[in-house]
Write a structure and sequence with these properties.
The complex is a heterodimer of chains A (about 325) and B (about 450). Chain A has about 325 residues and is of the alpha+beta class. Chain A contains 14 helices and six strands. The radius of gyration of chain A is 21 Å and the shape is globular. Chain A starts with a helix and ends in an 11-residue tail after the last strand. Chain B has one domain. Chain B is built from 18 helices and eight strands. In chain B, the strands form two sheets. Chain B has a four-stranded parallel β-sheet, with helices on both faces. In chain B, strands 6-5-7-8 form a four-stranded parallel β-sheet, with helices on both faces. In chain B, α8 links the parallel β3 and β4. In chain B, α2 crosses α11, α5 packs across α6 and α9 packs across α14. Chain B is globular and about 60 Å long. Chains A and B meet through α12 of A and α10, α14 and α15 of B.
């Protein structure tokens, strides 16, 4: 018993400490707005990664988690994908590894990227339709309506939880379906589902192929998974509702006259978003943007790209040839 | 090096005696003009920044820099001339060669160029051909190879004509820059140029050397932007002085230029703090755009504007011999060779506002660039400078005029030639325009 209490205290301390670190970093960032967004993002990702681990160890139902994401997505868009998603963090670590090896990324053809873009909607539709289809194929017996709904939502089909699978940290505190190596439980998005559907033996093989493929592809192409991630689409769609115009939404805005169309924003984008480059000015309208803000950071013309929350500018491009002014 | 004995495709035979005569007369008069230009600049601003002394010296085309280049050449360094801003200077620097721009601003040599091409051709081209025929330009003479970028009609043929004398590397530039295949094509040209430079100089362009070259250029851009930012406020430096500083980058040693221009900025910043203005802050602020103005003879228009009565001050320009030289940095994402090369390609092709580009919505970048400059620098009037024969700039005039009309900024079309004869009537025209600007400001 005592050990469990100590464990809980430890966890809370670490969580609190990490939270404080996060706040401190944000404060530091506010004072020194334009330095190294990419670096800051990695810090936030690491903090979020650890924090998510503890959230899972508290056994919070995933539904609450989903509501939380939904809520921040309303205002911030796919901020979650760029800054908090653990799977995204894994891919960014791969990028660091690739950079260290001096290998350059490959670029997907724009058309193929567009197809992947649309594929997201198909995947989501399949996820949502699958349980209902199965329901009709095998109508459950002896269940009243409430039980049936509960089974539909939380049962083995996991329609909504499967959608947010990439948000599960790669290391999890619990043991079900995770691989235990040296007392650390490793998991991976969708592996649980694959093993569930395909059975232990063949499922593990398929899961390994899946893991290998996704890791290799995101080593070669930057943020490959994000281009057709079903979670991404669920988040992006929410942000697109026109009914939320009153809310302090986050947008990237472009100043047409200051832009020389030098194309840096297009080249540095890890998701190969072209809208920032192609749109003439105003609010950038795309559901592919993960708000990693690399384009804003790399834009060499002061105040050409701006990140606005509501009417307030929180971050803008600057003449990065000058060292930032520290107050 | 090309064998001089090879039969020349374009250039007529000129007796050596005549060449020597022409060269010595034009060089003597040119030296006089350069000294006179500097005297005039000093007269306009008696309290000229101390740091300008260096740029006055380096601007002597037959002076210090020529000797330095000769010394470098003796050590085995190659000198690569280029005739258009699209030449990737970072690659030249990375190959341990020296880039110099060789376009000519001499009025007298344009008449010699008339022997090869008709007078309808752009005088910048004619003058450059003429300068080569008599061996006037030291930088053009010292170049071991020339990069010719096929932008406007004149530039396209200039390389071919000069191939009678020098090794020429053509770079084929796409005219519609927004299409993805254009960028791919241009990237290939950049890679090809890298190979040619490596072969020619014998130095391999490594990741390290290219990174160093890019960083060097970024440093220069940083100082350049500081200088332009200083010009945005109340005037602390005359436009001609700043234009000379910018243009000196084309032939000066890049590192030294950065250092000296930085010193100039420091001095100007102090002046701005003291509110030590170079002319009354209500002097009409003028932007110059159009055909490039090359030192020394093409200093005609800047001289006229800043010595006119009422006086104007050039606070910004959109010239490929001016602010466009260093405005855009190379933005590298990951420092791999491929990424650096692509970044260089994009910086030269995409960010450029050269009128040789076109598309269905026109060369919109140039309009945006101008509108932005007009607003940022608080410009009151624009002078659209076109030399006869400069088709692309002349043809874009109406569009620019319409765009500027919308924001109620007057523009004046100033067409001229490579000649000193029209100075009198140009003076009247410029003064009338400045008069109008002053009247508008009073209203």
């Amino acid at each position: 018993m005592a050990w469990e209490y100590i464990g809980d205290i430890l966890r809370l301390t670490v969580l609190g400490g990490l939270g404080a670190a996060g706040i401190l970093t944000v404060l530091l960032w506010k004072k020194n707005l334009a330095t190294k967004v990419t670096f800051l993002r990695l810090v936030v990702q690491a903090v979020a990664f650890t924090a998510l681990f503890y959230v899972f160890s508290l056994k919070l139902p995933l539904l609450y988690f989903f509501i939380f994401i939904f809520a921040i997505t309303l205002f911030l868009g796919r901020f979650y994908c760029g800054w908090l998603c653990p799977f995204g963090f894994v891919m960014d670590i791969e990028v660091m590894l690739r950079k260290a090896l001096g290998i350059r990324y490959r670029i997907l053809p724009e058309r193929f990227n567009g197809i992947l873009h649309k594929l997201r909607y198909v995947i989501v539709a399949v996820f949502l339709a699958l349980p209902i289809v199965l329901w009709f194929l095998q109508p459950p017996q002896n269940l009243n309506f409430a039980d049936a709904m509960a089974k539909l939502l939380a049962g083995p089909f996991r329609p909504y939880t499967a959608l947010i699978d990439p948000l599960i940290p790669v290391v999890v505190p619990w043991t079900s379906n995770a691989v235990n190596v040296a007392h650390i439980n490793f998991t991976y998005p969708y592996v649980q589902d694959i093993i569930f559907w395909a059975g232990q033996n063949i499922g593990v093989a398929i899961a390994l192929v899946f893991i290998g493929l996704t890791l290799a592809s995101s080593f070669v192409f930057r943020r490959f998974w994000c281009r057709f991630c079903p979670t991404g689409v669920s988040l992006a769609v929410v942000n697109r509702f026109k009914g939320f115009k009153w809310a302090p939404l986050l947008h990237i805005e472009k100043d047409e006259e200051k832009c020389t169309k030098c194309g840096v924003c297009k080249r540095v984008c890890p998701a190969q978003v072209t809208e920032v480059y192609e749109q003439k000015g105003g609010k950038i309208n795309t559901s592919m943007c993960m708000l990693c803000l690399r384009c804003v950071e790399m834009c060499p013309y002061a105040e050409t790209l701006k990140v606005n929350i509501g009417n307030k500018t929180v971050f803008k491009s600057r003449n990065w040839l000058e060292p930032p002014k520290v107050e | 090096m090309k064998n001089e004995k090879v039969e020349k495709k374009y250039i007529p035979e000129i007796p050596a005696k005549e060449i020597d005569e022409l060269k010595s007369t034009i060089q003597a008069s040119s030296e006089k003009i350069m000294a006179e230009n500097i005297e005039r600049m000093k007269k306009t601003d008696p309290n000229r920044p101390q740091a300008m002394k260096y740029f006055d010296e380096i601007s002597n085309l037959f002076g210090q820099r020529q000797r330095e280049l000769a010394a470098e050449k003796e050590k085995g360094k190659k000198i690569i001339g280029y005739m258009c801003l699209f030449a990737p200077t970072e690659l030249i620097l990375a190959a341990d060669a020296i880039p110099v721009r060789v376009n000519s601003g001499w009025y007298d040599t344009s008449k010699i160029g008339d022997r090869v091409v008709p007078v309808e051709v752009c005088p910048v081209i004619r003058s450059t051909i003429g300068a080569k025929m008599i061996g006037l330009s030291p930088f053009l003479e010292q170049s071991d190879a020339l990069i010719s970028v096929l932008t406007c009609d004149g530039m396209t043929k200039l390389g071919e004509i000069l191939s009678d004398y020098k090794t020429i590397w053509e770079m084929n530039i796409p005219r519609v820059k927004d299409a993805p295949h254009s960028l791919r094509f241009w990237d290939d040209e950049i890679i090809n140029m890298k190979k040619q430079l490596e072969q020619f100089t014998g130095n391999k362009i490594t990741r390290k050397s290219l990174k160093a070259a890019i960083e060097q250029s970024q440093k220069a851009t940083r100082v350049f932007r500081r200088l332009q930012d200083l010009r945005k406020g109340s005037p602390v430096i005359m436009g001609r002085d700043a234009m000379l500083v910018n243009q000196a980058y084309l032939w000066d040693d890049k590192e030294r230029w950065t250092e000296k221009a930085s010193a100039l900025c420091d001095e100007l910043e102090k002046r701005a703090e003291r509110k030590d203005w170079v002319c009354p802050p209500d002097t009409p602020r003028v932007l110059v755009t159009g055909t490039p103005m090359f030192w020394p003879d093409s200093w005609k228009v800047p001289n006229l504007v800043e010595e006119a009565d009422p006086k104007g001050i050039i606070v910004a320009d959109e010239l490929c011999s001016g602010e466009r030289i260093l405005n855009d940095p190379v933005g590298v994402d990951e420092w791999t060779m491929d990424d650096m090369l692509n970044a260089i390609g994009e910086r030269y092709l995409m960010a450029s506002t050269c009128p040789c580009f076109t598309s269905s919505d026109g060369n919109e970048d140039r309009i945006n660039w101008l509108l932005n400059k007009v607003k940022e620098s608080n410009v009151q009037g624009v002078i659209y400078y076109v030399t006869r024969g400069c088709m692309l700039y002349a043809m874009e005039y109406t569009r620019v005029k319409k765009a500027l009309d919308k924001i109620n900024v007057p523009m004046y079309y100033l067409d001229t030639e490579y000649t000193r004869e029209d100075v009198g009537q140009m003076k009247t025209r410029v003064e009338a325009f400045l008069e109008m600007l002053t009247a508008r400001a009073d209203m």
